[in-house]
Design a protein that fits this description.
The protein is mainly beta. The protein folds into two domains: 103 residues, TonB-dependent receptor, plug domain (Ferric Hydroxamate Uptake Protein, Chain A, domain 1); 191 residues, Beta Barrel (Maltoporin, Chain A). Helix content is 3%, strand content 55%. The protein is built from two helices and 19 strands. The strands form three sheets. Strands 9, 10, 11, 12, 13, 14, 15, 16, 17, 18 and 19 form an eleven-stranded antiparallel β-sheet that branches. The longest helix has 7 residues. The mean pLDDT is 90.
Length: 365
């Protein structure tokens, strides 16, 4: 079966000075950003013309709920798998998927501290430290952290972000290794959907910095924490058994303003005000066996595995009514300070629970 795989290494991440995984994906070819949920996450992306929200971290499914966009601080590489190659992870969409591989602990001491500021007033600082814990180097650690904040190219949009990602690896024997990893991400940012579409938009340009919310409205708080443990066991020179489990949970909450429509005059933007609380948690466990063998002159690379996943999600959203409580702003001459309308519009309450059992087999000739 033809394989189309692009590997974006740590060197690429560093050369691009990428803050997010989505900044690196643009260089894979054939993949573009989709909805980023007002700048908070990587809700979906487009690969080979298909929209998908499915991606993985160390082989475990991610993007359950609305977690923050994956940070680059703990990324060793990103594997972009197109078409049938994406079946390696047993699920996904026809266009393909991608898998984020975390930076492993090293057996030599190394520390890196970096910082930078941009022309808009934003800043970011990172720390990465790794090395052995014992003299035999059987226990190793890695600690990555990133802190950023300040202004952005959008007026009145200030964003704060913290990422902490510790990892510990233990060689129980020459054939057995346990890896314990975790990551915590928190983002505070206003909901900012960008500039709205309106008549004669191509002929009448408005600054890309223009903000159509209200500076007085608070920010969203998005957080996500995860932990996983993985055991890798070498059964022989060509066979390997891998078993692991991952748990993560998070929440998104706060007020927000979104565009609803543009009136017939072509300049009055009707907005809605909303308050929402989203919560999610996910448990995934998987085991797989990989190996190589030959039947005559034909060589085989096989993958056999099983997976269980339990996902829980709740959503409560209250909105103002653009009809009962008009909440407008002039696209070309915005005047901020309008009174926040009451939550007298639509109301959404969702509770979802899913359990998934799966098995998969692959033989690559």
């Amino acid at each position: 079966m033809p394989q189309s795989v692009t590997v974006l290494t740590r060197q690429v991440v560093d050369d691009l000075q990428a803050n997010r995984v989505e900044d690196v994906l643009a260089y894979a070819g054939g993949i573009t950003r989709g909805n980023n949920f007002g700048g908070t996450g990587l809700t979906d992306y487009n690969l080979r013309g298909f929209t998908s929200s499915e991606y993985f971290r160390n082989g475990f499914p991610m993007n359950r709920g609305y977690p923050p966009a994956p940070d680059s601080i703990a990324v060793e590489r990103v594997d972009v798998l197109r078409g049938p190659a994406a079946l390696l992870y047993g699920r996904g969409d026809p266009g393909g998927t991608f898998n984020i591989v975390s930076r492993p602990p090293a057996d030599r001491i190394a520390q890196t501290v970096s910082g930078r500021i941009d022309s808009f007033g934003g800043w970011r600082g990172t720390v990465d430290a790794t090395g052995p814990v014992d003299s035999g180097r059987t226990v190793r650690y890695r600690f990555g952290a990133a802190l950023e904040g300040g202004d952005t190219f959008r007026d009145y949009v200030q964003s704060d972000r913290i990422v902490v990602a510790p990892v510990v690896a233990w060689d129980a024997s020459s054939d057995l290794t346990f890896t314990l990893g975790s990551e915590f991400v928190e983002v505070k940012t206003p909901l900012d959907r960008g500039n709205p579409a309106f008549s004669n938009q191509l002929a009448i340009a408005i600054p890309s910095s223009r903000f159509f919310g209200e500076p007085s409205v608070g920010r969203w708080r998005v957080r996500n924490g995860l932990g996983n443990i993985v055991a890798d066991y070498k059964l022989g020179p060509d066979w390997k058994l891998r078993a692991g489990t991952q748990y993560y949970n998070g929440e998104l909450g706060g007020p927000g303003i979104q565009a609803s429509s543009v009136r017939a005059d072509g300049r009055t933007l009707v907005r809605t005000y909303s308050e929402r609380t989203l919560r999610w948690r996910d448990l995934d466990a998987q085991v797989n066996l990989t190996g190589k063998f030959a039947t005559g002159t034909i060589e085989h690379e096989v993958l056999l595995g099983a997976e269980f996943e339990a996902f829980h999600y709740t959503e409560v959203i209250r909105n103002s009514s653009p009809t009962l409580s008009p909440f407008t702003i002039d696209i070309f001459a915005p005047a901020y300070g309008s009174a926040i309308p009451p939550l007298n519009g639509s109301f959404t309450s969702i509770r979802t629970q899913t359990r998934t059992f799966a098995g998969y087999a692959q033989d690559m000739l």
